[in-house]
Amino acid sequence: MSNVKLETPAQYVKGVGPRIAKLLKKLEVETVEDLLYFFPRDYEDRTQIRPIARLQPSDNAIIRAEVASINHQITRNRFSILKVILSDPSGSIQAVWFNQPYLLKLFRRGMKLIVSGKIEYSTYEHSLQLTVKDFEVDMGDALGIVPHYPLTEGLYPKTIRSIIKTVLDKYLDDLKDHLPDNIRQEQQYPKLAEAVRTLHFPKSLNEIEPARQRLAFDDFFWFQLELGQRRKNNQKAVGIPLKIEPDKVAKAINALPFVLTGAQKQVMEEIEHDLQAQHPMNRLLQGDVGSGKTVIAVLAALIAINNGYQTAIMAPTEILAQQHFDKIIKLTKGLKIKVKLLTGTQQKKERTKIIDKWDLVIGTHALIEEQVSFRNLGLVIIDEQHRFGVMQRMGLVKKGANPHVLVMSATPIPRTLALMLYGDLDRSVIDEMPPGRTPIKTHFITQTKRKSAYNFIREKIKEGRQVFVVCPLVEQSEALDLKACEDEAVFLQKEVFPEYKVGLIHGRMSGKEKDAIMQAFLGNKINLLVSTTVIEVGIDVSNATIMLIEHAERFGLSQLHQLRGRVGRGSEQSYCFLVGNPKTPEAKGRIKAMLDTIDGFKIAEADLRLRGPGDVLGLRQSGLPSFRVADIIKDEKILQAARIAAFNLIEMEPEIARNIWECQR
After folding, report:
1. Containing domain of residue 77, as a range?
2. What value does the mean pLDDT of the chain take?
3. pLDDT tens figures, 436-473
4. CATH no. for residue 128?
5. Are residues 380 and 465 in the same domain?
6. N or C: which end of the chain has fewer CB within 10 A?
7. Same domain, 128 and 18
């Protein structure tokens, strides 16, 4: 339940008005509540102001000084350099502002400033200078621990501090603390109002972290309470309890051309337990590339089919749907079940006709089209589910009467992200690779070693092996000096491997064109396939043993891992060559992680540390909430505690949990 006072537009707060309200809106601050939760980005301890005479090179310093002179220079390339001599009773120093010419109108001789920044020795000036990080006009009231808020042009530090003080004094008491006292006391956190005031205006630096942790806990707690309520509601839903016939399951398993791993057997037990329950299964199945998730999906589908229900498997691309179809046809040979492929390229009439008579339908987004309906959908399986939006997933689920749901991901997700994205789902992990797989050898290749890499590839093609070459672009771009796959295919065919067949596949091709190319590659009629990341997910060619990735530094870490997983599918030794010139620390970190491990979950953890949670999946529709304070990397322990507290409350005090959940929404 919202508080009317907290919904008051920021414009009506004393000291704001229409002009500043527009500036605040740029910072996504529109109400009184937004202002209360508009926390500083950092703090400055102005009890540590130092005399200019005591400054040393490499110091990060804060000084309180007077403007003695002003010099503004414009370089040939129109770059602005503002140099201001600042003085205090102990001496003087030159302060430098880069590319901020508008400050020339603000400064005047005799003005008193508080300035922070890095002290450096200028070889040009032969003296110390201060490269400015922050500053403000000294009005005599900005000492102590001073908060620094995110700003926009026209909004000044003193102004925003004054507005925040006004809001705290007038509205802080209206901020209701819905976190139960026993949970707060157990975690040893301050009350909400105290934490909010402290984060804005701490009396000491030591007070900041406990207040921040309280608000991070709130972020996680309310989200986990939402997930917990969803999970509880699902458990109340009337599902389709399926009968497990051990003889039929054993027959299907024994008919497989391989033996299930221990991890696969464990996952099947978990799924069988869910399928027999009175409420619908909602389970996430995670497994690294090649760990055998598709087999589990087929076995689960057979249980539903043996009970007289249909199963739908939805994949994000036609290539992957086709590959699932081909693989499942082989796995179910002799089992007398009707399997059908449904894609957007098929005619509408055919798509409508298909559904009623088939036991297992494998398709793309075409499955959720309005005219597609099922006879009795009992199990929904979503592959590479993070590529679908929530509404797309629900669109398929609603075509049945509370069907069981299994979502699969070959993109390993760190535990913290899994708790955020899929906390309402039960989670199974296949953490064991099938026997006979030889670990992929990964090498970083500079331009000087390219020729030797090509020679190595030539030898492997002579042995009958096949090769993937992945480029970031389809066509050459003048703006980006990257290898384009069309140009690369021509170059490799004419200049490097004229004696072999080079193929090309990319996302701009039609479904039929892509299918024809992949079929030729699967049949070893193409020796070397140049591609964009269209082959990132699901493509399974056991004879392909080399993956060469151009401009590897331009790809995300999880994406690199997915691409590498396109080889190493058979018993032969496979290789991944990363070609590039990484310059940034993040790019170098990605390459190092790829060289250090082939474990997808370790890769995912490294990716989370390098890029942060918002970009790990590389998708807009990641389902990741936006938190005010919490950081799921830094605050993993707080997340774990918040999840336990939220789920315990739902279990032990369901009415209290529902009431405070309703109040917080």
Report:
1. 50-142
2. 86
3. 678 899 999 988 899 999 999 999 999 999 999 998 87
4. 2.40.50.140
5. no
6. N
7. no
